[in-house]
Amino acid sequence: MRAVLRRDLDTAVARQVLGRATSLAAQVAAEAAARAPAARVWVTMGDDRVRPSHQDAHRQMIPANLRFKLRKQSAAPGRRAQLLAGYDLAREPRDPSLPAGQRGGCRCIAITVPGVIAAKVQAHPAVLTGSRAVGRVSVAFPRIVESHTGTSDDAPAPFLANAIDAVAARLRARASARP
Predict the structure, then answer these.
(1) What's the whole-model pTM score?
(2) Does 98 fall in a domain?
(3) Whose CA is closest to 109, among 89, 88, 96, 95?
(4) Which domain holds residue 129?
(5) What is the tens place of the pLDDT at every residue in 41-77?
(6) Phi-psi map region of 115: left, alpha, beta (phi>0 left; psi -120 to 50 alpha)
(7) What residues are paired with 114 via a beta bridge?
């Protein structure tokens, strides 16, 4: 009889803890979605005058705090440019930091798209891992880790870490307000 009570108690506690961990993951996901950066997309004119590296970048969607990656290209006078290994980085079309062959005569545009990254934030049901309940929040979006941590030239947008901090602060405030 004692073993049965113990097993039932463990199951009841596990369900309660899993429910709380799942709820916390949902709170973090909602906070992260509210803090997620906008996205930007590179758009060409779509005609035969678009240089190969810009055609390659067409519809590239990135977090707004990062720079677009444009494939390097040959610049042989009088000949169609060929794509090379490596990338040139640009905050926008005609970025002054781009080589002249990437910048001059560019007719591309960058469009800001709010809410795209926020829509990719997901909370997952908590699972038991040993004696711990683990809730998980994920974001499936190109270069999102690079966006979150930043690069040597791009400032970070740590919206997930900030979301965790905000939810934790609310929990601490509630706990300290209790008598």
Answers:
(1) 0.84
(2) yes
(3) 95
(4) 22-37+118-177
(5) 999 999 999 999 999 999 999 999 999 999 998 876 6
(6) left
(7) none
Whether residues 80 and 57 fall in one domain: yes
Letter for the amino acid at 77?
P
Q: What pLDDT does residue 128 have?
A: 83
Q: How far is CA 101 from CA 46, 71, 81, 88, 97, in A?
A: 18, 12, 9, 11, 11
Of 141, 140, 121, 115, whose CA–CA distance to 62 is shortest?
Answer: 141
**Is residue 80 located within the same domain as residue 108?**
yes
Q: Yes or no: say if 89 and 97 are a contact pair by the CB < 8 Å rule.
A: yes
Q: What is the pLDDT of residue 15?
A: 74
pLDDT of residue 97: 95
> What distance in Å separates the CA atoms of residue 108 and residue 103, rounded to the nearest whole number?
10
- 3-class DSSP assignment, residue 126: strand
> What Å distances lie between residue 98 and 84, 128, 157, CA to CA?
15, 50, 24
Residue with tokens 């990437």: 102
Per the structure, the count of domains in the chain is 2
CA distance 9 to 11: 5
pLDDT tens string 94-123: 999 999 989 999 999 999 999 999 999 999
The pLDDT score that the predictor gives to residue 115 is 97
Shared domain check, 156 and 134: yes
